[in-house]
């Protein structure tokens, strides 16, 4: 009964065996209300394969780091999904038809198939065309994830790349924005060391866009796959040029038009090597010295870390490979939807089903793209100025969890009805009407350009509406608000003197009140003290019998006498101290007067001595003193020179006499030895006896 049911399945991927085939070539149908044990086992195997792939990437030190999609990327992604929505709907209908028991019955009725197939093909596309369209959509989404500018197939002028600012270029792509922030952080943090990184891209056009971002920064770079866009002719230090030259020769790979041995961009210690992925696979095979990179930054998400060239590059340092992944994009979904392994007899269909699943999941997660990302995205993930990324380059395991917190917001299981609603695009493209022409490989570029043109017109109309309608209203409101502000300011300015006068009076009254309160407190303290004394006197003047005794009066009189004596003594001491103080004051005044007079005399003496020395220095004899010193030095040097010449002359004549004497003696000895020797020996033979020389 479940197979005969016509209700749509709850999930086109959760309840249908994607890769199981029946004998007739159709997909096997399952229950649409519950999941069988075989499907649970298949999903478990798929999840296990994803985990194994992630573990393999983690073991090979390939790390996916999150970035965000720019607004233009989100717009183009939604436009692409809208263009291919009919294709995705047709694929969904074809899958539903295959899962229906009626399609299995139609297989047996071959004569009745001709009319029904013609009618069905009028609504649905051929399988080959659908495969091509799905593959095209998948490829274009991958291009948009890197940079929407790569959709343009014509040549990008060099002046256009050099004239655009970094802000405009980074607004095109989230990957480029992340790379620009990383480079700026490395330039500021790694100034005191040579820091080399390898940047890998898929093609030369993407390398030119990346090069347009780093031109003008305080770093050195080389483009190993193409001629550099700009050569800085400034001369650098020898050490820096030597290091950069070695980096260019070793890491450049030798290809691409002579960019390998040159450097440009500044004196910074950061060195960037730009290279194409295919050239990296080919050129690094036999280079064992290219192991000084700190990390590899790949704009291509499909880079193969097991390639022999990359393994040779990372043989010593095993530098990490960072791949930026825009969140909620197709690259993000590919990390959770395992790609089928190659080598099967139905490999093309499996790849088609995988691409279709990624696209449908992307459509369902379209609400994540529509949410405005926080401007603090990079601050929350990488810290201020990307310091968290720079500090964890050597320990990249800390960066693995950055992408995981966005995985929980992905919707990977969904129903067919939900997918159909998402494919309608009622909210985003409700006012756009598709033309009667069906989408194909040939007219894709035309329809995409028309759709983007319509979106551009919509944005322009919205801008015009804001400028012509909303902006004047807001200007009027702002003007009236500013007028009210001006009136309030004038009123405040008019009342400010009164307010200031009242404030001064209030402060004066506050000070007066505080003074009165202090006086009142003093008076109250004194009054309480007097009351205490009166009470004490009353207590003492009230004996038990009610009369003052003679002993009390005599004691009080003696106390008064003692107090008067003490008072007179204190007064005399006070007078004495006052006299001494007056005497010391007079002495101090006299001594200070004398000190001032002595100081004036000392200043006069110093002034006289200064004038006397100045007159001596101004005498004509002192003016001739340097000349006399110079002449005296010359005379001393002349005297020493004369003595040295005399000694030299004497030694020269003495040595010449000695040498002449020795030569004569030697000549005589030689003549004597020649005349007395044997006639058979040569006459010109010199004697072997020792000579004075």
TrEMBL record:
Pfam family, one: HDA2-3
Comp. bias regions, Low complexity: 39-48, 673-685
CC per GO annotation: HDA1 complex
Family annotation (InterPro entries): HDA1_su2/3_sf, Hda2/3
Coiled coil (residue ranges): 499-616
Compositionally biased tracts (Basic and acidic residues): 239-252
Alphabetical keyword list: Coiled coil
Region span, Disordered: 24-48, 239-263, 670-693
Polar residues bias locations: 24-38
Record's protein name: HDA2
